[in-house]
């Protein structure tokens, strides 16, 4: 698979020695559920508030990615501690300071792919193989906004769909967003091996794009 | 790698070639191609109706050689079709129909071998399976008859233990007990009597067509004799004593035996169709009357012996029942579907039944009931039932008193009941759903009327599917005898002259009503599109006892609303027919339309599975393939059957990827790898 988990910790290795593990533990205890060794939805909301992060913003997802969280809206102790160690942050202030740089790391194509695929696993129900369409509709604008020229059309196109997005389709959508021209002219249905959903999207989008272009020309 | 390149260029060219071929094949007649084709209608790719045209044409042609020629043409055209699977699915249904009605074994075998020669086993497996089922059914029926004989003997023994046999057979009269006595005893018991009576009659008739039964059953062991003894017992008693003794005896007889005793008197046959081969048919949850149910159980018992795993479901839609009914002292054999038989049998217990009650008793939806009952209410030649709308201020009593007294003087009773073996009754539920489809044809026919009904057979040789044709034949026949060629003259004159010549003239007052009714009948018949619309004859005959009120009922019946839950159904006491054997059309069109939808679904599912199979097969052998190469190989493998849509291939491939049978190369998404 394309996800390269080693890459996650690459840049943070050097800072490992300088963090105070007890402080991180205290931080975790502050937000965790009383009965369980986890930060759950409520604690997470409090954490993001303390960090001045909108829980619906991409930053929260990036943070979860850095923590290598496995379950949506849940950080286990080990995930949190390891994540904070990797980020080199043992207090809320340090974490706050680190967050902008995390977002920047998405500019690296490989890191972004890793993040992109993480978003798939993180958001899909554990027992399913694919991403439910309702979730997908909310997720795509969040992570592909600014990276996919036709994101609005894509969301509009998904409105009419009922089937879940498979991992294969999801993954190839990123290639599609990166490699296909704005006017979709270099999309090769016959030999491109694109998933059928993308074929259908091109059928849907081409006339719309042509229309827009005509309007622009006028 | 070279073959990849070649493959990349190939698909479009190949497809073009196939298209061109199919075009040639598709319009043989428009291009005037060849004399051999001139009589064949044009066949379009995947065209369903054309296919049926061909087979109808074929069926009309009677000489075998020309039939074979047609079949050869059919097979040849078949080869050019792009979407063979669609065409084939339809054809399989027609093939099933052919087998169900009448078939020429030799012809079908040669047809199958022709297809096999040209197209390979894929198409012929199911066809030959169907044919074998059909051929095997003869053996099975013989075995079943044998089994029945055993059961009959057993049944007779049990009876003899209980009843003192009387030997003074009184066979001449009263094989059907008078109406009063039937009413008195009512229900099952009465029916048993009638059945026994008729089975006796059957035994005495030389005309009954059960050649196979005859061959198996030694004459002295003829089951009917057992029954005749019983019957004689009954007949030689006074009404009162008879009832008493019967009651006493019946109680003492093993219930199980009693249950089947009546059923054993019915000539019942079933075709078992293997669900693997036969096209699927919708199975309705019809609640059968106990008698017919017993017949079914008899067969199920027989079929399930030692084979617990078998599963039978009965296909009532393909079954035929012959019922005998007496109207105005005349007995008629009605050839009806199981649904219609069940509806009619309800009237043995009560004269008037609310639609909603009938519906509940039969476990049918209003729509289904309407569908099956329509011919009985509307069709000219078989209007056995009448529908009475339930207007707010019209009492049903008045209606009853208007009709009843007249009728009673004329006839003993109106009773409809299945009658054991003589000519033609086939009461044939079919089982299809799981392992078997069975087609039971019990063939009771009339006692007194049996010879006549077998004469009538000549028109209606066909099975259930052919009723429409048979019906037409019947109506034509009726016209030429009764009306003559002037069938298109004014309704009024015609019906009057008809009535005057053939039947006692109706009371003058009712004449206008008749005319009205005849017209009315025309309207309703054309509405249901029976094809054989003759605004004459029967409706006038029926009209004899009709009051103008009744006519109004009829008129509203012609409305699209047709029938409502609160309406009342009753027997049309004035029913008359020129033919003793009345074939009631089983309204088929609806079923047919349902079939095409299901058949389309079938094809879609079938195709998906085939694409899956081919994909896995190819990936397994090649291990690694580019998208284009894989596509080509799949198209090539499937071309003999159909040209798969590239998107269908992709979709199935995506499924395989999702299920981790196949994976994409990490760096090149256009390269697939088989994940072992």
From TrEMBL, chain A:
GO terms for cellular component: ubiquitin ligase complex. Gene3D superfamilies: Cullin, PONY binding domain, EF-hand. Residues 19-206 form the DCUN1 domain. GO terms for molecular function: cullin family protein binding; ubiquitin conjugating enzyme binding; ubiquitin-like protein binding. It holds the Pfam family Cullin_binding. GO terms for biological process: protein neddylation. It comes from the Eukaryota. Neddylation of cullins play an essential role in the regulation of SCF-type complexes activity. This is Defective in cullin neddylation protein. It comes from Chondrus crispus.
Automatic annotation (TrEMBL), chain B:
Keywords: Membrane, Transmembrane, Transmembrane helix, Ubl conjugation. The chain crosses the membrane at residues 314-347. GO terms for cellular component: cullin-RING ubiquitin ligase complex. Residues 28-38, 394-404, 490-500, 523-532 have a biased composition (Polar residues). Residues 462-474, 535-547 have a biased composition (Basic and acidic residues). InterPro entries: Cullin (IPR045093), Cullin-like_AB (IPR059120), Cullin_CS (IPR016157), Cullin_homology (IPR016158), Cullin_homology_sf (IPR036317), Cullin_N (IPR001373), Cullin_neddylation_domain (IPR019559), WH-like_DNA-bd_sf (IPR036388). It holds the Pfam family Cullin_Nedd8. SUPFAM superfamilies: Cullin homology domain, Winged helix' DNA-binding domain. Gene3D superfamilies: Cullin Repeats, Cullin, Chain C, Domain 2, Winged helix-like DNA-binding domain superfamily/Winged helix DNA-binding domain. GO terms for molecular function: ubiquitin protein ligase binding. Residues 41-377 form the Cullin family profile domain. GO terms for biological process: ubiquitin-dependent protein catabolic process. Belongs to the cullin family. This is Cullin family profile domain-containing protein.
């Amino acid at each position: 698979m394309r996800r390269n988990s080693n890459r996650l910790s690459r840049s943070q290795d050097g800072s490992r020695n300088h963090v105070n593990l007890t402080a991180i533990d205290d931080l975790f205890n502050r937000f965790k559920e009383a009965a369980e060794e986890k930060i759950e939805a409520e604690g997470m909301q409090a954490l993001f508030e303390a960090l001045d992060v909108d829980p619906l913003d991409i930053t929260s997802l990036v943070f979860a990615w850095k923590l290598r969280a496995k379950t949506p809206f849940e950080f286990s102790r080990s995930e949190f501690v390891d994540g904070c160690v990797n980020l080199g942050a043992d207090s809320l202030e340090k974490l706050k300071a680190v967050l902008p740089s995390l977002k920047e790391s998405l500019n690296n194509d490989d890191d972004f792919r890793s993040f992109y695929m993480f978003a798939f696993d993180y958001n899909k129900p554990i027992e399913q193989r694919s991403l439910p369409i309702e979730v997908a509709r909310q997720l795509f604008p969040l992570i592909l906004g600014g990276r996919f020229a036709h994101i609005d059309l894509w969301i509009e196109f998904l409105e009419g769909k009922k089937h879940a997005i498979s991992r294969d389709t999801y993954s190839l959508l990123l290639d599609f967003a990166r490699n296909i021209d704005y006017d979709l002219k270099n999309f090769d249905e016959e030999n491109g091996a694109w998933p059928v959903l993308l074929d259908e999207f091109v059928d849907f989008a081409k006339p719309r794009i042509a229309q827009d272009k005509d309007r622009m020309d006028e | 790698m070279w073959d990849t390149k070649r493959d990349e260029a190939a698909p479009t060219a190949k497809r073009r070639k196939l298209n061109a071929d199919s075009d040639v094949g598709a319009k043989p007649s428009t291009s005037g191609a060849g004399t051999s084709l001139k009589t064949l209608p044009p066949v379009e790719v995947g065209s369903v109706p054309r296919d049926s045209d061909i087979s109808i044409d074929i069926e009309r042609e009677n000489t075998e050689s020309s039939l074979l020629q047609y079949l050869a043409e059919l097979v040849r055209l078949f080869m050019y079709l792009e979407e063979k699977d669609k065409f084939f699915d339809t054809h399989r249904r027609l093939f099933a129909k052919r087998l169900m009605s009448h078939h020429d074994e030799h012809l079908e075998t040669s047809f199958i071998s022709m297809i096999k020669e040209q197209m390979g086993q894929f198409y012929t497996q199911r066809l030959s399976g169907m044919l074998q089922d059909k051929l095997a059914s003869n053996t099975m029926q013989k075995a079943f008859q044998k089994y029945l004989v055993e059961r009959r003997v057993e049944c007779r023994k049990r009876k003899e233990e209980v009843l003192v046999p009387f030997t003074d057979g009184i066979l001449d009269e009263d094989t059907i007990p008078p109406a009063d006595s039937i009413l008195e005893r009512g229900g099952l018991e009465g029916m048993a009597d009638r059945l026994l009576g008729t089975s006796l009659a059957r035994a005495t008739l030389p005309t009954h067509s059960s050649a196979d039964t005859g061959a198996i059953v030694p004459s002295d062991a003829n089951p009917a004799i057992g029954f005749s003894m019983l019957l004689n017992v009954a007949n030689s008693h006074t009404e009162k004593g008879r009832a008493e003794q019967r009651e006493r005896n019946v109680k003492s007889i093993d219930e199980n035996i009693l249950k089947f005793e009546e059923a054993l008197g019915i000539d019942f046959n079933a075709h078992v169709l293997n669900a693997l081969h036969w096209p699927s048919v919708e199975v309705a949850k019809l609640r059968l009357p106990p008698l017919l149910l017993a017949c079914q159980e008899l067969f199920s018992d027989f079929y399930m012996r030692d084979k617990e795993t078998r599963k039978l479901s009965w296909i009532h839609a393909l079954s035929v029942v012959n019922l005998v009914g007496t109207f105005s002292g005349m007995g008629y054999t009605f050839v009806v579907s199981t649904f219609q038989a069940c509806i009619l049998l309800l009237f043995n217990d009560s004269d008037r039944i609310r639609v909603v009650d009938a519906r509940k008793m039969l476990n049918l939806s209003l729509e289904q009931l309407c569908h099956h009952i329509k011919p009985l209410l509307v069709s000219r030649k078989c209007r056995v039932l009448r529908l009475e709308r339930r207007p707010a201020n019209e009492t049903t009593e008045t209606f009853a008193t208007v009709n009843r007294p007249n009728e009673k003087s004329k006839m003993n009773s109106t009773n409809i009941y299945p009658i054991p073996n003589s000519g033609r009754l086939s009461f044939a539920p079919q089982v299809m759903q799981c392992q078997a489809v069975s087609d039971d044809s019990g063939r009771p026919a009339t006692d007194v009327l049996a010879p006549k009904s077998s004469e009538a057979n000549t028109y209606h040789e066909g099975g259930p599917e052919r009723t429409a044709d048979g019906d037409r034949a019947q109506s034509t026949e009726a016209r030429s005898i009764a009306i003559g060629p002037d069938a298109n003259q004014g309704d009024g004159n015609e019906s009057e002259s008809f009535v005057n010549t053939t039947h006692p003239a109706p009371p003058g007052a009712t004449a206008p009503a008749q005319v009205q009714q005849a017209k009315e009948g025309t309207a309703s018949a054309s509405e249901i599109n029976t094809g054989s619309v003759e605004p004459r004859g029967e409706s006038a005959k029926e009209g004899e006892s009709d009051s103008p009120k009744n006519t109004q009922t009829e008129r509203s019946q012609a409305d699209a609303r047709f029938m409502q839950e609160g309406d009342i159904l009753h027997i049309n006491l004035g029913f008359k027919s020129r033919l003793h054997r009345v074939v009631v059309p089983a309204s088929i069109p609806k079923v047919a339309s349902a079939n095409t939808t299901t058949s389309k679904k079938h094809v879609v599912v079938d195709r998906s599975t085939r694409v899956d199979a081919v994909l896995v097969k190819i990936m397994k052998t090649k291990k690694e393939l580019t998208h284009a190469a894989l596509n080509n190989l799949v198209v090539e493998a499937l071309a003999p059957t159909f040209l798969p849509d590239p998107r269908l291939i992709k979709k199935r491939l995506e499924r395989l990827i999702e299920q981790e049978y196949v994976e994409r190369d990490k760096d090149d998404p256009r390269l697939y790898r088989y994940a072992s």
